[in-house]
Amino acid sequence: MQAIEILERLVGLPSVVGTPNGEIVAWIRHYLQSHGAVVTELPGPEGDRSNLFATIGPKETPGYILSGHMDVVPAAESGWTSDPFRLRAETGRLYGRGATDMKGFLAAVLAAVPALVAMPLRQSIHLAFSYDEEAGCRGVPHMIARLPELCVAPLGAIIGEPSGMRAIRAHKGKAAARLTVRGRSGHSSRPDQGLNAIHAITDVLACARAEAEQLASGPFEHVFEPPYSSLQVGTLKGGQAVNIIPDSCEAEFEARAISGVDPATLLTPLRTSAEALSQFGFQVEWRELSAYPALSLAADAPLAALLGELTGIEPLAAVSYGTEAGLFQRAGIDAIICGPGDIGRAHKPDEFILTGELLACQAMVEALGRRCA
User: Fold this and answer.
1) Which of 16, 71, 142, 241 has a CA positioned 20 to 30 A from the CA of residue 203?
2) Which of 72, 14, 16 is nearest to 341 (CA)?
3) Active-site pick, 71, 161, 211, 357
């Protein structure tokens, strides 16, 4: 099958983040097995979704991982000019949810499989396809934990997030959490008889603002924009009516960290501030939503040199968005980002990838195969 045909199939299998992914897993597994790849399905703890890991070439020799996620964000936003889950081709553009982020990469890799299988590979090529990346990289840690039994230590991992086919060596880490504060409702004329959850949570909001301002003063890592770690309040929900004492309020916080900083620790002052509210009678629930570490691959790393050769473009130092790459690096595997499409087209109506980008990615994968042969 050609890359466009495969992309059409993949887009037609919605695989929205946080939902069962049995259909897309089954289709990819069957495709890979039909070409002779050794495929392992790795069910996650949720019970209704799985990761996929496949090997082409000698399992006993170190090789490279091609990593991508099978899930996509929902397509409920207005502005789509066609069915988001039906690939539409128009003047060199291929429209559909996930076309860029990141089923285009999956399609290009899968289209290269027949060529890879036909090569006398001396180094293995592994495909690592994960679930629920869009919910904070929830699926891939379970697969990474199983790697020692699936393959020998890899030489590197290429994460195919949209980068315009230019390799990227670094990104920030991220952590997100949700705070729920519960007080006691009542009529607004008797504030003495209630516990106002919105008033209470303002202490934590003030803490978040102060921490964000402090982070802006450094430390710095100038490959990033902005060059410092950051923190923000992303959502705030609470109250029922202006004359009712609000008995609950919920806020979500996000931190993004430069290299060498654990993003989860940036939220610690907020959690401490929140837990202090319990002494005033409030119930406090702090829930970690997601976390992944920063990626920082040295400019002179062999993997960076390899991707420079495969793409013909010098790797870019860093980007602002995050990926699964930091998790591979934390597991001791050099990782780099390189994939088709543009991150600016992702998570938007009429998401698209260029046909040329798709074919360029397939060519890169096949060139990697020739290097491993």
Assistant:
1) 241
2) 72
3) 71
Q: How far apart, in whole angstroms, are the C-alpha atoms of residue 316 and residue 291?
A: 24
Q: What are phi and psi of 343, to 5 degrees?
A: -60, -25
Q: What is the pLDDT of residues 78-115, one digit of tens each?
A: 999 999 999 999 999 999 999 999 999 999 999 999 99
Catalytic residue among 8, 101, 132, 133: 133
Q: Determine whether 133 is an active site residue.
A: yes
Residue 288 among the catalytic residues: no
Looking at this protein, which amino acid is placed at residue 15?
A: S
Cβ–Cβ under 8 Å, residues 366 and 330: no
What are the φ/ψ torsions at residue 228 (nearest 5 degrees)?
-135, 165
Per-residue model confidence as pLDDT tens digits over 139-154: 999 999 999 999 999 9
pTM of full prediction above 0.85: yes
Q: What is the dihedral of CA 52, 57, 60, 64, to 10 degrees?
A: -60
> Exposed, middle or buried: residue 100 (CB in 10 Å: 0-12, 13-18, 19+)?
buried
Q: Element (H or E) spanning 55, and its range?
A: strand 50-56
